[in-house]
Design a protein that fits this description.
425 residues; mainly alpha; 0% strand; globular
Length: 425
């Protein structure tokens, strides 16, 4: 009887849901009408998570900055964070170019024989993003960091303007001293209540995972995967190499292990993989990285910014996909042209960070600027969901590691807390 009374852990529940989702998806492959009844279960779970992301980011960041209290310190955090993000995403883009040149996933494929997907919704987003107020997407992004209406930014869920206001507001709380204590108490209470909500919402994670995986398998099955299997293998191989080698070296340099981070975040990585949404794990990841040894003011500052500027998996995928399209159409890109591609992706990936379907939109814009046929993306849209699941996991691991990097750089990483936390798992 004791065996039946033993509670199944949440990670195990998620794993079981993942397997069941694959099995049921294969059994119901092709029945898109059934998917319409399963998909809402996943959407409800994801909406519940997204509902509390903004309150967690705003309250935790404002509280942390009010504790730091100095604009110079906050400015130093920001500068170091952006410098690190730019370096690591550039490495990811360059690694993608290297893998695409070594393994040539697009060579030998006939574009006329591949099934085409619908990319019209991404084309409309790309077209909208091309209308720049200042003639440059990156400059637009910098200007739009400052919200004209904070409540409008809250309603739209725009992270960068919310982060800007939260930092400024936190500095204001620190500046008024004792008068700011009621505000800090209020924000602290909201944060605690929000984390209580998160614990309740996460109990629905297995249901959400089952729905997302089931619908994914039902929608494309193996038919879309087989012709593009080489592309999938090259992308996945590059992602694994990036995490194990590149992030592994970075982790080693700051005195930790990328495998320790993966161990700590195994449930969150599994959830991010299943839902293709890194937002689904943001609040819990902030909590866990704080326990891992990175101070609260670092985690609450670095991770939300990383969700816009440090999408390593997405950057790596975009460079491989761009060269895949060129190879598929028999277009040779010289070394200088590939360097231009790297530079273009560095800019476009930052300048369109808030656009829905960012990876595809960035690729559409990049292909157009490089003179490559944007129609090639319609040929890989069938496997994009699978690749999105993988790149989301890399984004999560990369952002988690960035908190350790900045904490070490600032000399505030808590080694004892890190050791105790790892021993407790």
């Amino acid at each position: 009887m004791a065996l039946f009374k033993r509670k199944i852990s949440l990670p195990m529940q998620v794993m079981i849901a993942l397997v069941l989702g694959v099995v049921v998806g294969l059994l119901l492959y092709g029945h898109k009408d059934v998917a319409n009844y399963i998909q809402p279960l996943g959407d409800i779970f994801l909406n519940l998570i997204k509902m509390i992301v903004i309150p967690v980011v705003f309250c935790s960041l404002a509280l942390s900055i009010s504790g730091v209290g100095e604009s110079k310190t906050v400015g130093r955090y920001g500068l170091k964070t952006i410098v690190y993000f730019e370096i690591i995403t550039t490495i990811a883009i360059a690694l993608g170019v290297l893998f695409a040149n070594l393994f040539k996933p697009g060579t030998g494929l006939d574009p006329n024989k591949l099934p085409k997907g619908d990319i019209s919704k991404y084309e409309s987003s790309a077209h909208a993003a091309e209308h720049s107020t200042y003639g440059n997407h990156f400059i637009d992004t910098i200007v739009n960091i400052i919200p004209t209406n904070f409540f409008e930014a809250l309603a739209k869920g725009e992270l960068l303007p919310i982060i800007f206001f939260a930092v400024f507001f936190g500095l204001g709380i620190a500046a008024i001293g004792e008068k700011g204590k009621p505000v800090k108490d209020f924000l602290g209470g909201v944060l605690e209540a929000t984390f209580w909500m998160i614990n309740k919402i996460l109990k629905l994670a297995p249901l959400g995972v089952f729905a997302f995986i089931c619908v994914t398998i039902m929608t494309f099955g193996a038919s879309a995967l087989i012709p593009l299997l080489k592309l999938v293998l090259v992308v996945v191989g590059a992602m694994v190499f990036f995490v194990v080698v590149v992030l592994g070296i970075v982790a080693k340099l700051v005195g930790t292990s990328v495998f320790d981070i993966i161990k700590v975040l195994k449930s969150e990585i599994l959830l991010a993989f299943s839902t293709s949404s890194s937002e689904a794990v943001l609040p819990v990841m902030m909590q866990k990285m704080e326990r891992f040894g990175s101070p609260k003011d670092i985690t609450s500052f670095v991770i939300p910014i990383g969700y816009t500027f440090n999408l390593d998996g997405s950057a790596l995928y975009q460079s491989i996909a761009a060269l895949f399209v060129a190879q598929m159409y028999g277009i040779h890109l010289s070394l200088p042209e590939q360097l231009v591609l790297i530079f273009t992706l560095m800019i476009t990936s930052k300048g369109m960070a808030a656009v829905p379907g960012t990876s595809i939109v960035v690729l559409l814009t990049t292909l157009g600027s490089m003179g490559l046929p944007a129609a090639g993306l319609a040929l890989i849209i069938g496997v994009d969901r699978i690749l999105d699941m993988v790149r989301t996991c890399v984004n999560v691991v990369g952002n988690a590691l960035s908190t350790v990097v900045i904490a070490k750089w600032e000399g505030v990483f808590d080694k004892e807390q890190n050791k105790d936390y790892l021993n407790s798992i």
